[in-house]
Amino acid sequence: MVNQSLAFKVNLGIGKYSSGDHYAVLGLPVHAEASQIRKRYFNIAKILHPDVYGKSPQESDRACTYLAKLVSPAYNTLMQERERVEYQALLKLIAKRLMKRGEGLEPQSDVARLLATAPNDLNYEKAVRSLAEMQYQSLDKALDYTGQLSELNLVYVLAQSGYKPFASPIIAVSSPTVGSSIKTSTSSTSDSSVLKTNSFQHSAYKPPTSSYRSSEPEVKASGNSQSSNSSQAKSQIHLAEQYIEQKQWAFALKELRAVLQLDPSSSKCHALLGLVYVKQNLNSMAKVSFQQALKLNPQEPLALQYLKQLNLAKDADAKAQKPQKGGFFGWLGGGS
């Protein structure tokens, strides 16, 4: 009889160094929030439900087994805050140990090798989403996709921990599909290879710089440093705007705070920060950010728009809470 835990074992990426990769099982990035985890779980449960998935009794049973033995345990772990925090610490520990050992990372899947050339948040999330869409459509390939997701997670976790040798290989890809073979070569010339893939055609190779790169050494010349900071700040503002469009508030907040480290006088950054706070119902913090934006640029349109809305909402609340005269001895039903 086959041991079910062994049958569902993933030996790639994080799964190679841990008993399992819960985020890969659910097809999620390792920084997914509780609401994303819950939504993704119910989507998978719908796919694997025997009444939806089952074309035969055997397939229905198999789908139920995947849900009970693989998906639900991952969900139950990540939905407990303490367990999720401990698991995040485990991922960082795995990255730290690999870096300490000086082990070279050579992902087996095309999509993970591709991410390794530009391991920023946007590319990582796109790659995870592309695999997650296919992950449980065929149970014959579910573990293969989960392994590739786990490799993506390992590449990302290592990059966030400061692992640098990702950029050295030049990877030549000829219109691959997920899971296909890949050819790699190392070149000492200045020749810039053109890399093409369905998932990353427009942004994988010249992406906005993500904030994890802020740990890299600064340019020595003051003029170049100032120009470099300005360019990086603009790229990260652009990335933050993309996150805002996708309603990824936590990621947008991370990028905007990194921008303020580079350029604290950016009125647009302060205004976008205020917008993110508004979307998270943190109106007091939003108001401070909008006011700061207007100090730097009195004509900052976003700050003018939303600060006016906040002030109108505050006036409306104050009016609604103001005791009204009349009635039998006022609101308390009695007088002094």
UniProtKB/TrEMBL annotation:
Q: Which PROSITE patterns match?
A: DNAJ_2, TPR
Composition bias (Low complexity) maps to 220-232
Extract the SUPFAM superfamilies matched here: Chaperone J-domain (SSF46565), TPR-like (SSF48452)
Which UniProt key words apply to this protein? TPR repeat
Q: Which Gene3D superfamilies match?
A: DnaJ domain, Tetratricopeptide repeat domain
**Residue windows of the TPR repeats:** 233-266, 267-300
Give start and end of each J domain: 21-91
Domain of life here? Bacteria
Query: What residue spans carry the region label Disordered?
Result: 199-232
Keyword Transport in record = no
Q: Which InterPro entries does the record associate with it?
A: DnaJ_C4, DnaJ_domain, J_dom_sf, TPR-like_helical_dom_sf, TPR_rpt
Q: What's this protein's name?
A: DnaJ domain-containing protein
